[in-house]
Amino acid sequence: MTKIAFIGAGSWGTATAALVAKKNEYDTVLWARRPELAETINLYRENPEYLPDVRLPESLEATHDLEKAVTGADVVVMGVPSHGFRKVLREVAEVAGRAPCYTSLTKGLEVDTRKRMSQVLEEEVDGISDSCVSVLTGPNLAKEVVQGFPAASTVASRDEVTARKLQDIFHAPTFRCYTNTDVVGCELGGAFKNVIAIAAGMADGLGFGDNTKATVMTRGLAEMARFSVKFGAQPLTFLGLAGVGDLMATCASPQSRNHSVGIELGKGRKIEEVIGSMNMVAEGVKSCKPILELGLEAGVWMPITENVVKICHENHTVQEIVTDLLSREIRSEFAGIEEYLEVNQIP
After folding, report:
1. What is the domain partition of the chain in residue ranges?
2. What pLDDT digit, counting tens, does each position of 212-269 carry?
């Protein structure tokens, strides 16, 4: 039987593991960093810290033993936050090596190196090929997925055969899985939408209306696309699940950690206080700074990201960023994308 090892028992790691385990077609193992969490999942069929009141399938086995989790795995699914991804991956790779296909669930950039998780995989797994690196992304609010609410996602790999293989694994009656070969676009979309979700949350926290949120989301999507095409992404990706789909879910749902952070910032709370009260990672807070640094080096106009960084890392007030954004110069709505189309001779 094909073995799928899920590394990281946070909300999304647990949800995807449960999704696959319910099919009863695979040997599905979930690795938890803390032994007590693994024991709780096995005894009570619940992850009370990250997915409370959600019943997990009997066929899902949790373990704290990393070697047990990954030995013989055909697919290793990395559900570890960006700041811990490389460290855990090193430990996984020591046991699993390059044999399995690796799939990243992480929607963020490594702060120090400013690299995507697929790049980290290529660096840390000796001799790994493109066909063994993939990404699962989309509008994936974990609790809704594990409850069986209809949803969809994209699995991206540069190798179409790998993408279709993973599509079969993740696809379920209530979870439609599509394929994509734009790994760069899918990863950058997943990281960037968290930054825009913080900005949209700020608008809600300030008490602004739906027009404001629609403006933030739309201009945020344009900013995301401008940035991403500079690094090799395909514009069409941002009209799909990895782009506008993920952005809509993250900017609108009370289940979104990044949106929730933005709401509290809009209400006047300090970022340290907001983050200190959470038991899960809001990737946008960490990723906004490396995203901005990369964008500025590439000459990308990024007013929303710039101001999210000012709030999260430079102690500016929300009112200051509202004033700044409203006083910016008026430009062509599709600036940046127009340049891409012209350079690539796309009519």
Report:
1. 3-181, 184-343
2. 999 999 999 999 999 999 999 999 999 999 999 999 999 999 899 999 999 999 999 9
For this structure, is 193 an active site residue? yes
Catalytic residue from among 115, 165, 193, 230? 193
**CA atoms of 152 and 135, how far apart (whole Å):** 14
Distances (CA, A) of 156 to 20, 131, 153, 172, 337: 18, 11, 10, 17, 22
How much is the pLDDT for 14? 98
According to CATH, the topology of domain 3-181 is Rossmann fold (3.40.50)
Superfamily the domain 184-343 falls into: N-(1-d-carboxylethyl)-l-norvaline Dehydrogenase; domain 2 (1.10.1040.10)
In angstroms, rounded to a whole number, what is the distance separating the alpha carbons of residues 216 and 43?
44
- Distance from CA of residue 177 to its chain's centroid? 16
